Amino acid sequence: MSKLRKVDVTEEQKKKILEIVDSYKDTEGSLIQILHDVQDYFGYLPIEVQEIISDAKKVPLAEIYGIVTFYTQFSTQPKGKYAVSVCLGTACYVKGSGKILEKFEENLGIKAGEVTDDGMFSIDACRCVGACGLAPVAIVNGEVYGKLVQNDVKSICDKYRES
Ligand code: FES
């Protein structure tokens, strides 16, 4: 069983989250966009942050939790020092990015959406990042790796391990 750590959300962070929620008050069906924007701001969506959104939007926490855990672009965990993001957009997927993602998971010993115990790495899947010509693509802290084959994964991970 994974240990649940309580995440402290400061008053200032809470205020900013409420501002984001409020900025969509006139937009129907904006929950996913709100979750995106809050994740961009806070970095991830722990349950404490989901509760704030739930209260402000008057949407049941279970519904928000369902969305956050269903879509791979949302994370309930903080990102690692090196955040690996594997594109599962169509062009990348047909060129085998699913297998590339599995290789990263295997090499780092975590699943997509998780972070290593030492906080060094996290893995996420993402949608098309606009580099389809380089498919399959993975990004580590903004650095794009294209035309990946499964054997590339180890050297990419090692490069960051050693840095
Ligand atoms: S589908 Fe991966 S970059 Fe476009």
Brief digest:
The protein contains seven helices and four strands, in the order H-H-H-H-E-H-H-E-E-E-H. It has helices at 11-23, 31-42, 47-57, 61-70, 90-94, 97-108, 152-162; strands spanning 82-87, 121-126, 138-140, 143-145. It has a four-stranded mixed sheet with strand order 2-1-3-4, covered by helices on one side.
Q: Could you tell me the strand content as a percent range?
A: 5-15%
The total number of structural domains is 2
Oligomer: single chain
CATH class of the largest domain: Alpha Beta
* CATH homolog superfamily of the largest domain: Glutaredoxin
Sketch the topology as an H/E string, one letter per element. Answer: HHHHEHHEEEH
Terminal CA distance: 31 Å
CATH topology group of the largest domain = Glutaredoxin
Q: From the 3D coordinates, which CATH architecture of the largest domain would you assign?
A: 3-Layer(aba) Sandwich
Bound molecules: FE2/S2 (inorganic) cluster
How big is the Rg? 17 Å
Helix tally?
A: 7
Largest sheet: 4 strands, mixed
Structural class by secondary-structure content: alpha+beta
Q: What helical percentage do the residues reach? A: 40-55%
SS elements, strand count? 4
What overall geometry do the principal axes of the alpha carbons give?
A: globular
Look at the structure and give the mean pLDDT. 92
Protein topology:
Layout: H1 11-23, H2 31-42, H3 47-57, H4 61-70, E1 82-87, H5 90-94, H6 97-108, E2 121-126, E3 138-140, E4 143-145, H7 152-162
Parallel strand pairs: 1-2
Antiparallel strand pairs: 1-3, 3-4
FE2/S2 (inorganic) cluster binds at residues 87, 89-92, 128-132, 135, 137.
